[in-house]
């Protein structure tokens, strides 16, 4: 019996060691996969008008680099960061694209004037001039809305992970891994990579708030930084911030619901009421004509 036990024990130990080795190797492989997924940059696509002007911007870059455009470059760079397009196009190229589109619009206007279609030319000129800044503002607005919509749920997940005993960075990494790649996840991934590369956590969070420029996100990040500096429990703070954001979201929804009747008045007055009046009055008018004629 003792001989049998001594003969089985090495085999059992070898099997356990092999299983542990495989589990460790699998965990390391998953960690590499997670870091690789988080390090991949989200590719942004530019509108077709910008792509058409890209081959020609080299001819006008010197204008965008002029000192008179310094304030415009700084403002555009900040907007591109907020829109998430800073890695796709820089401020100089974006201003150059705006200049090229304005030049294209002027050429189209001249051709339309020659063809005696001045109004069409003016409309196209205005569209090409105002399209880039309007597009950029819309992208920023959509990105902020997406971040604001995902922020309460992300805070709930982060709160549960921290209260379960996980480190803040480990919790952040797991949340980034499991969430879909939206605007919030993209910014969190970038911040996580900055912290991994040696940037101080408080500074990385401040840079995130500056980069995104969304007030509610900035409030949450500043609270986390203060909690870290003062030694306050991050779990309780995240719970409070999540409840506050949820209350704000409900308040915004109620505000939009209250504005809906006012916004629907104009479409009703322009489209619905005339159609109803036509449907009611036309048969009466036709019947009156028939009566008078016959």
How would you describe this structure to a colleague?
With 294 residues, the chain is mostly helical. The protein is 83% helix and 0% strand. It contains 12 helices and no strands. It is flat and about 90 Å long. Residues 1-6 and 19-42 have low confidence and may be disordered.
Low-confidence stretches: 1-6, 19-42
| Residues in helices, as a percent range | over 70%
How far apart, in Å, are the first and last alpha carbons?
123 Å
What is the level-2 CATH architecture name of the domain at 146-253?
A: Up-down Bundle
Order of helices and strands: HHHHHHHHHHHH
How would a crystallographer describe the biggest sheet? Answer: none
CATH topology of the domain at 146-253: Receptor-associated Protein
Q: Can you give the mean pLDDT?
A: 79
Count of DSSP helices?
12
Q: What is the CATH C level class of the domain at 146-253, in words?
A: Mainly Alpha
Specify Rg, calculated over alpha carbons: 30 Å
Structural class: mainly alpha
Q: Count all strands and give the number.
A: 0
Give the overall shape. Answer: flat
What is the percentage of strand-forming residues?
under 5%
Name the features:
about 290 residues, mainly alpha, Receptor-associated Protein, 12 helices, flat
Secondary structure topology:
Elements lengths: L1 H38 L8 H6 L7 H4 L5 H14 L7 H24 L3 H46 L4 H11 L4 H14 L4 H12 L2 H16 L3 H30 L1 H29 L1
What's the short version?
With 294 residues, the protein is an all-alpha fold. The protein is 83% helix and 0% strand. Among the domains are: 48-141; 146-253, Receptor-associated Protein.
